[in-house]
Amino acid sequence: MLTIYGDSISGNCLKVKWAADHLGIGYEWIETDVLRDESRSPAFLAINPAGQVPTVVLPDGRALAQSNAIILYLAEGSALIPGSPYDRAKMLEWLFWEQYSHEPYIAVARFQVRYLGKSFSDLDPRLIERGQLALQRLDQAVSASDFLVGSQLTLADIALVAYTRVAGEGGFDLALYPAIQAWIARVEGVLGIAD
User: Fold this and answer.
1) 50 vs 6, 10, 33, 66, 188, CA distance in Å?
2) Where does a domain end: 30, 49, 75?
3) Of 33, 74, 90, 110, which residue is least crowded by CB atoms under 10 Å?
4) Average pLDDT, integer, range 5-25
5) Alpha-carbon gap, residue 32 to 23, rounded angstroms
6) Measured between alpha carbons, how far is 135 from 82 in angstroms, rounded to an integer?
7) What confidence tens digit (pLDDT) does each residue in 40-76 have?
8) pTM value surpassing 0.90
């Protein structure tokens, strides 16, 4: 059976859980609290020397890290990865954008506000600006289509909904992005997740 080491407060970990659940892949979830440095223990570092969650251990004992690499592995051959080369490349484009232009701002703001107790006004203005630009880009994309790539849920939606749905916890007002709110509801509905 697959083993997932993850922290339930992490969107990166939850996207792995949601992809596995959606695909009907059985797994054992091992809660790994990053706030308590559990991903820095010698036992965990033996599995993933980078000391990061999520990390999965495959049934054959091999470990795999990085959330988007994991969900790509899990979804291989499924409808979560488009069949057309162009659509598959568009999905990957969103996955790369999520880790470079979305997660570093939306997730970091959320962590600083919710878990470190900072106020939104005390955040680095550049962090806020980049987070708002990411939300504007996403809102524009989901204004034109129900999902990010094609007409059905793909890994792009799973990757981006993870932190977008909790952006308000970082001080971003999702009421300013009605298309995002509708998209979040659609993706949560397909995945069967809720707060």
Assistant:
1) 14, 16, 15, 10, 31
2) 75
3) 33
4) 97
5) 23
6) 24
7) 999 999 999 999 999 999 999 999 999 999 999 999 9
8) yes
Domain for residue 80, yes or no?
A: no
Q: What is the mean pLDDT of residues 141-165?
A: 96
Tell which of 75, 105, 136 closes a domain: 75
In order of 4, 118, 119, the CA distances from 153 in angstroms are 23, 35, 34
Distance CA 53, CA 66 (A): 8
- Torsions phi, psi for 80 (to 5 deg): -70, -15
Nearest residue to 160 via CA among 139, 144, 143: 139
Measured distance CA(4)–CA(194) in Å, rounded: 21
In whole angstroms, how far apart are CA 119 and each of 10, 27, 34, 53, 114? 20, 37, 22, 26, 9
Into how many domains does the chain fold? 2
Shared domain for 108 and 132, answered yes or no, is yes
C-alpha closest to that of 159 among 115, 102, 83 = 102
- Residues 66, 102, single domain; the answer is no
Identify whether residues 43 and 99 lie together within a single domain: no
